[in-house]
């Protein structure tokens, strides 16, 4: 099982991969699994992580008191989320904006923009994300 210490070079270091021109087939079992957030944890599966991008899934669970949500996050690179299941609410505090992203929708977040994802539904929500060039 891959370890969190492999972030930035998983499944192989970016420059080395491009030099070797090697292809990789991955599935969820091959991903780096991690819990993100100290106060409001969510599940991340990182499928690829190198010098130019991060790619994986995020799951925001349901249950407990009030809606489950990510902690505020910000990235040095642009982020794109694609909702696989459920309706996600993205909150952008600097702009005081909320955006409902339904199953099959995309959400683009520019670099250096603070955000959080909120799950107001009664089901786990899941999205694929890519962040480039920096996590």
TrEMBL record:
<dbReference type="InterPro" id="IPR013096">
    <property type="entry name" value="Cupin_2"/>
</dbReference>
<dbReference type="InterPro" id="IPR014710">
    <property type="entry name" value="RmlC-like_jellyroll"/>
</dbReference>
<protein>
    <submittedName>
        <fullName>Mannose-6-phosphate isomerase-like protein (Cupin superfamily)</fullName>
    </submittedName>
</protein>
<dbReference type="InterPro" id="IPR011051">
    <property type="entry name" value="RmlC_Cupin_sf"/>
</dbReference>
<feature type="domain" description="Cupin type-2">
    <location>
        <begin position="69"/>
        <end position="130"/>
    </location>
</feature>
<dbReference type="Pfam" id="PF07883">
    <property type="entry name" value="Cupin_2"/>
</dbReference>
């Amino acid at each position: 099982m891959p370890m969190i210490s492999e972030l930035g070079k998983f499944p192989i270091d970016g420059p080395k991969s491009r030099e070797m021109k090697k292809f990789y087939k991955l599935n969820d079992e091959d991903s780096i699994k991690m819990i993100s957030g100290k106060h409001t944890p969510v599940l991340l599966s990182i499928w690829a992580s190198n010098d130019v991008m991060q790619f994986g899934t995020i799951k925001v669970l349901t249950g407990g008191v009030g809606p489950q949500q990510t902690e505020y996050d910000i990235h040095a690179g642009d982020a794109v989320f694609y909702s696989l299941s459920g309706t996600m609410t993205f909150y952008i505090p600097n702009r005081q904006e909320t955006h409902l992203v339904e199953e099959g929708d995309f959400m683009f977040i520019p670099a250096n923009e603070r955000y959080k994802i909120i799950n107001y539904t009664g089901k786990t929500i899941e999205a694929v994300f890519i962040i480039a060039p920096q996590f």
